[in-house]
Amino acid sequence: MIAQVAGVILAGGKSSRFGSNKALALHQGAALIQGIARKLAGLFPETLLVTNTPEDYGFLGWPMVADHYHNCGPLAGIHAALRTISQPRAFICGCDMPLINPELIRFLCELDGDHDMALPWLDEGPEPLYAVYSKNGLAVIEAHLAQKQCKIGTLYEKLRIRKVTAEEILQILPDFTTFQNINHQHDLARLAIMGH
């Protein structure tokens, strides 16, 4: 178990491109979110699901919390998680990333240093929904949400960030497939073909 970190899944998206609730789409015979939940439950002493539709996820048996600020996207989910967990930090991921990797998650959680956020920062940009957040950043996040600044990117100037480079990730994993997320039905079909 990874000490002093909670494992959090955000399941608040509208899934408009997917056409139905993608968290509940079947992947390898189970709901997409189930595989993610199983991985996190094996890594963290505390788990949490952030959702505004708890009735959809009772089958997971996870504690749940709703957004405090509505219609503010993933940042509101990150805020709700940090307010709720008892651990000082949280690993937070989306409900549409079935290939999250325990080794990389452990690496992100165990990085030394006094940072508010540790996240993969790839050539294409950051991965804020595959990242570790500290409760130390909660006041800044809350201030942004109170002003209806809902973009996670607005935090990058304000918080102390530990950027995890592509090179660091490739020392742990052979490629970047771990970051694939499911936005369309064909994304799920492609994963099946790849054997994931």
User: From N to C, what is the helix and strand string?
Assistant: EEEHEEHEHEEEHEHH
Radius of gyration computed on alpha carbons: 16 Å
Number of helices: 6
Shape: globular
Which class do the helix and strand fractions yield?
alpha/beta
Query: Residue-averaged pLDDT, rounded?
Result: 93
Count of individual domains: 1
In CATH, the homologous superfamily goes by the name Spore Coat Polysaccharide Biosynthesis Protein SpsA, Chain A
The profile of the biggest β sheet is:
8 strands, mixed
Give the N-terminus to C-terminus distance in angstroms: 24 Å
Helicity level: 25-40%
* Oligomeric description of these chains: single chain
Query: Class, according to the CATH hierarchy?
Result: Alpha Beta
Low-confidence stretches: none
| CATH architecture title | Alpha-Beta Complex
Q: Provide the β-strand percentage band.
A: 15-25%
Number of strands: 10
CATH topology: Spore Coat Polysaccharide Biosynthesis Protein SpsA, Chain A
What does this structure look like?
- The structure is a single chain.
- Helix content is 28%, strand content 21%.
- The chain is an alpha/beta fold.
- The protein has one domain (5-194): Spore Coat Polysaccharide Biosynthesis Protein SpsA, Chain A, CATH 3.90.550.
- Strand 7 and strand 8 (125-126) form a beta hairpin.
- The mean pLDDT is 93.
Quick description:
This protein has 196 residues and is of the alpha/beta class.
What is the topological layout?
Layout: E1 5-10, E2 26-27, E3 30-31, H1 32-41, E4 46-50, E5 64-65, H2 73-84, E6 89-94, H3 102-109, E7 117-122, E8 125-126, E9 130-134, H4 138-146, E10 161-165, H5 166-170, H6 185-194
Parallel strand pairs: 1-4, 1-6, 4-5, 7-10
Antiparallel strand pairs: 2-3, 6-9, 7-8, 7-9
